């Protein structure tokens, strides 16, 4: 018998870099296909899924400001990069027979729908995967913050962050192999210890709305379903 899902309505946050695979830039179609399989498997088990994908594999707004350019312009370009990634993921899901819609905070009506909370809620109830693009629609906010905002708006049971490693560590385990791995943390511990889970705004949004954050490796096959069924390796950040 299939194990029940611990969290049914979820917001899955993926970095743009997760779509690169071993490439130095852009989108690896094989990686997108594998991630679409993970999401499709979760949907088959009854999960309602919203996804936010970053744009760092294509463009980072802060890179413009770092070279003396206008940060607002750079962030607008970064938002458009998230739209490109979102279209790619939604297309891969639809090819697998999973209904998927891209809703953008930045209006691009000839390409995808503009985000509204009511519309997104209706689509999720109907079983569509919603890929939220365009961040918050405002400069100076990260896609982590945008994901936390959407998780709160959609009243998600959990905020899942698929990363390059299998949880939260005291230090970068790629730099320090002896770094401590945590299985459970409070929101305050993450903030006070300055653990690099995501930016403080995103953590505070999740904390204030009592949405647990679950950090796991998106590169481990089957990890998404394992997390939803409270198996596998992950770090739980909660009250």
Automatic annotation (TrEMBL):
One Pfam assignment: AA_kinase
Regulation: Inhibited by UTP.
Catalytic activity, reaction form: UMP + ATP = UDP + ADP
Keywords attached to this entry: ATP-binding, Cytoplasm, Kinase, Nucleotide-binding, Pyrimidine biosynthesis, Transferase
Main location: cytoplasm
EC number: 2.7.4.22
GO biological process, one term: 'de novo' CTP biosynthetic process
Subcellular location: Cytoplasm
GO CC field: cytosol
Residues annotated for UMP binding in this entry: 55, 75, 136-143
Biological role stated in the UniProt entry: Catalyzes the reversible phosphorylation of UMP to UDP.
NCBIfam families assigned: pyrH_bact (TIGR02075)
Membership in a protein family: Belongs to the UMP kinase family.
Record-given protein name: Uridylate kinase
């Amino acid at each position: 018998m299939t194990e029940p899902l611990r969290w049914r309505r979820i917001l899955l946050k993926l970095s743009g870099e997760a779509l690169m695979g071993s490439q130095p830039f852009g989108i690896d179609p094989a990686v997108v296909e594998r991630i679409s399989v993970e999401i499709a498997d979760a949907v088959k088990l009854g999960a309602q899924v919203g996804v936010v994908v970053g744009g760092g594999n294509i463009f980072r707004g802060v890179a413009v400001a770092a070279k003396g350019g206008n940060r607002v312009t750079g962030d607008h370009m970064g938002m458009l990069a998230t739209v490109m990634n979102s279209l790619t993921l939604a297309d891969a899901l639809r090819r697998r027979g999973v209904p998927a819609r891209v809703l953008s905070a930045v209006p691009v009506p000839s390409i995808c729908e503009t985000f509204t909370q009511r519309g997104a809620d209706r689509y999720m109830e109907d079983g569509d995967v919603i890929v939220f693009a365009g961040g918050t629609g405002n400069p100076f906010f990260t896609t982590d913050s945008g994901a936390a905002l959407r998780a709160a708006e959609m009243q998600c049971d959990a905020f899942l962050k698929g990363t390059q490693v299998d949880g939260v560590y005291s230090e970068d385990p790629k730099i320090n192999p002896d770094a401590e791995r945590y299985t459970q943390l409070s929101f305050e511990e993450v903030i006070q210890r300055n653990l690099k889970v995501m930016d403080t705004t995103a953590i505070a949004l999740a904390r204030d709305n009592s949405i647990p954050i679950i950090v796991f490796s998106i590169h481990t096959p089957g990890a998404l379903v394992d997390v939803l069924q409270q198996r596998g390796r992950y770090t739980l950040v909660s009250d």
